[in-house]
Amino acid sequence: MESFKMLFLELKDVFILCFIDDNRWEWLVEGFVNSILITVLAIVIGLFFGIVLAAIRSSYDKNEESLKLRGGAGYTLLKILNGVAKVYITVIRGIPVVVQLMIWYFVILVTQDNDIVVAVVAFGFNSAAYVAEIFRGGIMSIDNGQFEAGRSLGFNYVQTMIYIVIPQTIKATLPTLLNEIIALLKETSVAGYVGIMDLTKAGDLIRGRTFEAFMPLIAVAIIYLITVVVLTKVFSIIERRLRKSER
Question: What is the tens place of the pLDDT at every residue in 16-64?
């Protein structure tokens, strides 16, 4: 019993040293807020450019033969855009995200004043490549009858994609998109490589100041875990409501 009491007192002292002294808990709060901010803004960029890339890739794959027979500038333009999209996706998926982050920070957007902006851009354009392939798979799975239904309603191809195909694709790919958002949240843990105070960096700073590794790193791990659990729960509720709306 005495040993448990000693252990409790020791853990209490470590807790106070890591989080209470010098208000070090505020570093975790700041890091968490920055991590969430980067994730949310990056996924917005990723969704926007990912959907554009997916629309280009799937449009070319679905209509290549018919467009090739017609020829003309439309086919040539789509072929070029498809080639650019394929190269972009290949390059982004082939380079580690931490290397991309440092390229954006030290080479492309050389700045010391907008660290968060650089991280948002880097993670956003990285996410776009993965979102593009997620949506491309979803669009390719949509029956061609949906495109014909859109045409029968008087929509052109772009309107059919926007009003009919993409909403169905979002429903179909929602679980995979959740995985991408969770992966993106965890990928932001490398933002500290360019001096950004993200959640992982905050825990590492506390470790460096207190020379205690267990408490701050476990706290960071628990915060990430709770955030992922909450995100999973929210998306499961959304998914259930979407299924109900289909009925």
Answer: 888 888 888 899 999 999 999 999 999 999 999 998 999 889 888 877 6
Q: Are 38 and 119 in contact (CB under 8 A)?
A: yes
For tokens 């700073």, name the residue.
205
Instruction: Compute CA distances 143 → 54, 127, 165, 179, 199, whole Å.
Output: 16, 27, 9, 25, 43
d(CA 14, CA 179): 35
DSSP state of 194: G
In 3-state terms the chain splits into helix, strand, coil percentages (rounded to 5) of: 90, 0, 10
> Cα–Cα distances in Å, from 135 out to 25, 53, 151, 163?
40, 9, 21, 15
Judge if pTM exceeds 0.85. Answer: yes
The CB density around residue 195, as the number of other CB atoms within 10 Å, is 10
What tokens does 29 get? 């709060």
For helices 2-15 and 214-246, the axis angle rounded to 10 degrees is 80
Query: Which residue is listed with tokens 């776009």?
Result: 128
Q: Which of 35, 16, 33, 39 is nearest to 210 (CA)?
A: 16
